[in-house]
Write a structure and sequence with these properties.
The protein is an alpha/beta fold. It is built from six helices and eleven strands. Helix 3 runs parallel beside helix 4 and helix 4 runs parallel beside helix 5.
Length: 254
């Protein structure tokens, strides 16, 4: 008799819109059971209902990734419901207004760092613990980086600093996870068209002071890249991947 493996369990943060939603839909199509986390309950529940209508399994868990108690509750729900976690797509993130740093209110700095660094760390920490103690042991953590993890846009100090921090965290996770079959990846995305990035189609400040429109790509191509990494065995990893609109000003930026 052929043994059918149990569906694997994935968690997507920032799943209510944009890249998170596209990735969640892709993983559902691949047969994953997907936990949908995000601050806004309504879009998470809408996505869960859509998945159920297609015979797929999604669980909406409203979560503030900057709040340790909220993250702890999220992972408690995952462990109680499924008993394990095989994949975390650490996607939730925010940006700050593009203004000279001395004009940026400090609360915007803290918002970016709390979400993009502390939030990523809290979710990775909780996933690491669950993946370490579950049987069979191990799992995969994919962090959403950015082109800004390599080089900044003008007036992007908080976001750029946060994404450089994610790069360091990804490498530390990849190293520290080795004894426990936990692997870590970072996907650096350039100009995926989402609700938040749509404004870029009307012009973006360039390093030479001009404002120019930039090519964009469909977010489903990011989802396809995450699905590719997620489908690999834990013996194989893509440590870093850059997925970008081909003609965007990244190579040669500045």
């Amino acid at each position: 008799m052929t043994h059918t493996p149990s569906p694997q369990i994935a968690l997507v943060t920032g799943a209510g819109s944009g890249i998170g939603r596209a990735v969640a839909l892709g993983l559902l199509d691949d047969g994953w059971r997907v936990v949908l986390a995000g601050r806004r309950a309504e879009p998470l529940q809408t996505l869960a209902v859509e998945a159920e209508a297609r015979g797929q399994a999604a669980l909406a868990v409203p979560t503030d990734v900057t709040d340790p108690a909220s993250v702890e509750a999220l992972f408690g729900t995952i462990e109680k419901t499924f008993g394990r976690l095989d994949l975390l797509f650490n996607n939730a993130g925010v940006n700050a207004p593009a203004v000279p740093m001395d004009e940026l209110p400090l609360d915007k700095w803290f918002s970016v760092i709390n979400t993009n660094v502390t939030g990523v760390y809290l979710c990775a920490r909780a996933a690491f613990g669950l993946m370490r103690r579950q049987a069979p042991q191990g799992g995969r953590i994919i962090n959403n980086g950015s082109i800004s993890a390599h080089t900044p846009r003008p007036f992007s100090a908080p976001y750029t600093a946060s994404k450089h921090a994610v790069s360091g965290l990804t490498k530390a996770l990849a190293l520290d996870g080795r004894p426990f079959h936990i692997v870590a990846s970072q996907i650096d995305i350039g100009n995926a068209l989402t609700e938040l990035s749509e404004r870029m189609t009307r012009g973006v400040l360039q390093a030479n002071g001009t404002v120019a429109t930039e090519p964009m790509m469909d977010a489903r191509h990011v989802a396809d890249a995450v699905r590719h990494i997620a489908a690999l065995p834990l013996s194989t990893n893509v440590l870093n991947m850059t997925v970008m609109a081909s003609a965007m000003p990244f190579v040669g930026r500045g």
